[in-house]
Amino acid sequence: MKPLDIRDVSIIDAFPVYDCGVDVLNVGCGEGRIDRHLMRMGYDVYSTDIIEPKEKWVGELNFHKSNIFDLKSFPSPRYSIVICSQVLEHLKGLKRAVQNLLMLAEIRLIITVPRLKSYSSPYHIWHWDDLSIWEFEKWCSPYSVTITKIRTKPEDVKRKQWCYLIVVDKRQCYE
Predict the structure, then answer these.
(1) What is the 3-state secondary structure (H, E, C) of the chain?
(2) How is domain 6-170 classified at the architecture level of CATH?
(3) Which of 59, 91, 149, 165 has the fewest CB atoms within 10 Å of its CB?
């Protein structure tokens, strides 16, 4: 099993410490690295991606082919904790994707996205800066939203690279 990086650790640190439930949905699980660690920690993890992986490791996971724009493609309509890490930068229809993630999350939604072109990829449609990242806060209203900057490796400081960690707690509603 591959070790966790700082982004993965930050996601796990963002889990609620009380009233958190045990079911976790990872939207866009990639190779499922964090999923296997969460399973070892005792969580019921549902790993999803738009493309079913062909790798051997997928048999270790509770994997479902799902599309964030089709809520019926998910095994259940609600999960205690929903993770969506390094996915939204690839999607058209960003606001709808965030709204769907909020519908899937019962207690907490945890999102990571790269800052600007920090981790440039030709497949990135969206590039966030400090001003545009606050749009997430509007989309996630009326819930409590915390936005943090995280770096994944020491050289990120020199390169001025980081990811945003966005945590939405639905237990704290300010309507």
Answers:
(1) CCCCCHHHHHHHHCCCCCCCCCEEEEECCCCCHHHHHHHHCCCEEEEEECCCCCCHHHHHCCEEECECCEHHHCCCCCEEEEEEECCHHHCCCHHHHHHHHHHHEEEEEEEEEEECCCCCCCCCCCCECHHHHHHHHHHCCCEEEEEEEECCCCHHHHHCCCEEEEEEEEEEECC
(2) 3-Layer(aba) Sandwich (3.40)
(3) 59
